[in-house]
Structure formats: C-alpha cells, structure tokens
Structure prediction request, 275 residues.
Amino acid sequence: MTAKRATWQMAVAVAAALLTAPASAATCITSKGQFNAYKQQLAQQATRSGVGQRGLQALQQAKLSGITWRFESNPASQSSMRYRSPEQFLKSRFSSVNSFVSNAKRRLQQNARLFQSIEQRYGVPGSILVAIWGYETSWGGYTGKTPIVNGAVTLASYCRRHPRFEDDAIAALQLVDRGLINNNSRGGPSGELGHMQFLAGNWVRFAVDGNGDGRADPNNAADALATAANMLRRNGWRGGRSFADGSANFRVLSTWNDSGNYQRAIAYAAGLIDQ
Prediction:
C-alpha cells in the first residue's frame, strides 16, 4: 500500500467517525472500554476547533494511557492531596532541601544572562523559574515517558477531570498539526510537555521564542523558561514584588499548579535560592 493511499484511507476513517459521532459535546467515561467512543466524540469537537488531518489521525491512533488512568483512579495516592510542609513536599522527590537549593543555585548561575533577560522582560525572578524547572523535570533531566497525546486524551476523558482538561487534549492535537509533537512524543502522564511540563493548552496560549531561533519549543530550556514567565505575567504576576505566602504573586502560582502544597514549596524554595 502506498503512503498516499494509506493517508487517504486514514482520512476516510476519520470522516466516518465524525459522521457517526453525536453532535453534542464529548461525554466523559468511567470505564476503559468507553475510550474509543469518547475519541469519536472528541474528534467532532476537535474539527470544530480547527484541528487538521494530522491532529485527527493522531487522535484516532491514540491509546488509553494506563498510568494516567491508574493515577486518576486513585486520587488519594497523589502527594498534592495531603497537606505537607514545604520541606516535606520537596523531600518527597529530592534527597534533601539543601541539595535541591544548591543545584538550583548552580543552574541559576550557569544561565545568569538568560534568567536576567527573562526577568527584565516579564518581571518573574529566576529563583521562581529555576525552582519550578527543578521540581518539574530536575532541570530537564527527566521529561516523562508517557505519549503526550495518549495522556492528554485519557485525562480529558476521565469523568473526575472532564471537561476541565478537554481543551488541553485538543491543544495537543493542534501541536501535532504544527509538527511540534507527534504520536511518539513523550512527556508527563497528564500530557505535560518539555522542560517545564506545560499542559498543551498553556503552551498554545503562552508560548514564546526564548532563544531567538524563530521557533517556540517546549523541549528547549530557554523557550520553556521564557514561556513560563510569560504565562505567570499574563496571569497577574508583578515584577519586583513579594511572592511570599499570602501575597498577590503567590496567588498567581495557582495558575501554574492549583495544589497549595506545590505553591508553598516553590515559594519556599525560591526564597532559599535568593539567599
């Protein structure tokens, strides 16, 4: 079978799925066996949102992510659900707070010019960005092994999360259309992308080119850091002001992650990094 014929047959299959899908919004699911039906309904929404052939093909090929489903099926296992002090929260992932802070300071010094330029433009200090970067991926050391489209669509389908993350699933398909990711691109179990583990919708909304090469890539550290700063600023961050617990800037951290444990840990670590 030629590649051209295979592509044509794939397009026909997607069109057939759209014709059989109901006109209403996709219905969330409570069992794995409903996943393919959910994808058919999501395809209709994706088409209305302008997703093209490559994105629709990626959706058709998407598989339910077992790790995402298990994670969402047992919310009590999530560390963010239980109150922890900032020290406990950081130590749940790193050997010690001191090692986290010392590593963060080293990254900050190694990339001083980049962090200074980002703060000058967006008002977000390097200490906040390097703390998020370290917590999310150990400064790019581990960006995840879950296929991004699988994770994003599985998360959107799950009733406990639906429809809050449906826009992120559609955004992941838009990124496939743009050639930024494909079906084999991997990230976090909820479809997170790159160095800072952006949800796809946030990358679509806030992405900027941080290194001046004409392309915003979540797997490029400069792009990811600049985009994180842009996201925080556009959600209300004010440069030169406190980010201590209870401050206006502290509350902006909730737009990055709505876990109070996470917000307190990032602000705490950033304060130590600044010392």
About this structure: The two ends are 63 Å apart (CA to CA).
